[in-house]
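Q: Could you fold this chain for me?
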Amino acid sequence: MKKAQKFSLSQLLEFFPEVELPITLADDDHHTFSQNNKALPELMIEQYFIPLETTAPDDFTEYIPCFRLPETGNFSAIVYWKASLMTYEYILLTFDKKGKIIDKKIIAGTKAEGQALARSVATITEDWEIYMVGGVVSANDESYDPANSQSVYLELLPTGEIVVTD
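A: Sure. Below is the predicted structure, expressed as structure tokens.
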């Protein structure tokens, strides 16, 4: 019986080019990443991303490598885009040098919630601060009232942990 191939962390990171910060993630940015970055091999997705899921992905779930944060030192931080039924998420994932996962957070995306769409965008600064702004709009109403927006501030610590800040 043939043993499944195991990918090293460095092999995974090759699919995530380093970016210059600050960077903002919005709804359609995944198109640019899918055009410019190589697709992840299915076995790599099974090794690194499927075990993180709380529910089994279906045949239509898609993963797109976006980018890697520069100069992280003792850990690696990547952002990938995950599309599943009516849910599209940008996910920040951190690893230690041995490839063990440190932390994972959804930092932006779009999700259908009944007759409404919840949307959020995120900006990652040079200081690893992550500013998330989101809101909900009715599927029947194309206008969005910015007064209904909510902000969340996260920080990527030097340990690779992602924490909510005030």
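A (continued): Residues 108 and 121 are 5 Å apart (CA to CA).
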